[in-house]
Amino acid sequence: MSDLDLLTQSLARNVKRWRTERGFTLDTLAARAGVSRGMLIQIEQARTNPSLGTVVKIGDALGVSITTLLDYEQGPTVRIVPADQAVRLWHTDAGSFNRLLAGVEAPGPLEMWEWRLMPGERSPSDPHPQGTVELVHVTAGELTLTVDGTEYRVPEGASASFEAGTPHVYGNEGDVPMEMLMAVSVPPVH
User: Fold this and answer.
1) What's the pLDDT score for residue 103?
2) Per-residue pLDDT tens for 21-46?
3) How far apart, in whole angstroms, are the C-alpha atoms of residue 16 and residue 10?
4) CA count, 13 A, side-chain hemisphere, 70
5) What does DSSP say about strands 142-147 and 87-91: parallel, antiparallel, or unpaired?
6) pLDDT tens-digit series, residues 69-99
7) Secondary structure of the chain in the HEC alphabet?
8) Angle 26-33/37-44 helices, nearest 10 degrees?
9) Are the CB atoms for 123 and 172 separated by under 8 Å?
10) pLDDT at position 12, please?
11) Of 184, 183, 129, 136, which is closest to residue 161 (Cα–Cα)?
12) CB count in 10 Å sphere of residue 72
């Protein structure tokens, strides 16, 4: 089987899977993506090789990446993220940082983060989409978590969960580095 055949079959399987998971009819996905219902039928039956632009539109409408739509993997998928490939998205000169450790899209995006905040530092966050939930577990120090203007203290060894659809701030008002693991679950696109 050629690479093109593998991609065509992967795209067919994954578009149908994500459309079903999102609860979209063919007509709903066609309208959201701006492609014809006939084109979606051909894609889901692996009878066409759509343009990259069409694949991007479908991915955007489903809320998944092109990589996810073209994934060759079949059966249970295990992805190992080596430590040196975790993505650092934010850091300060004092040594505070966060790293995206791993993420999946099932049924919506789910991410796991490692955070370190040095004494006196804060990291504000804008509201996430409604329905987003965050779980934090403090492994060192004490987290000062402010959610929608209310401050909460989360000591070492404790965990907290909250709806992240409002402004929130992670802070360290202590005198030792605060470290935590955080999981973020974003609802699927409807």
Assistant:
1) 66
2) 888 999 999 999 999 999 999 999 99
3) 10
4) 14
5) unpaired
6) 887 655 445 566 667 777 787 889 999 988 7
7) CCHHHHHHHHHHHHHHHHHHHHCCCHHHHHHHHCCCHHHHHHHHCCCCCCCHHHHHHHHHHHCCCHHHHCCCCCCCCCCCCCHHHCEEEEECCCCCEEEEEEEEECCCEEEEEEEEECCCCEEEECCCCCCCEEEEEEEECEEEEEECCEEEEEECCCEEEEECCCCEEEECCCCCCEEEEEEEECCCCC
8) 110
9) no
10) 92
11) 136
12) 11
Residue entry with tokens 């739509």: 69
Q: Give the torsion sign (CA, 30, 33, 36, 40).
A: negative
Please identify every stretch of the chain with a pLDDT value under 50, giving residue numbers as ranges.
Answer: 75-76
pLDDT value of residue 111 = 83
For 166-183, give one letter per residue: b (16+ CB within 10 A) or e: bebebbbbbeebbbbebb
Contact (CB, 8 A) for 184 and 108? no
CA distance 54 to 59: 9
**Model confidence pTM above 0.90:** no
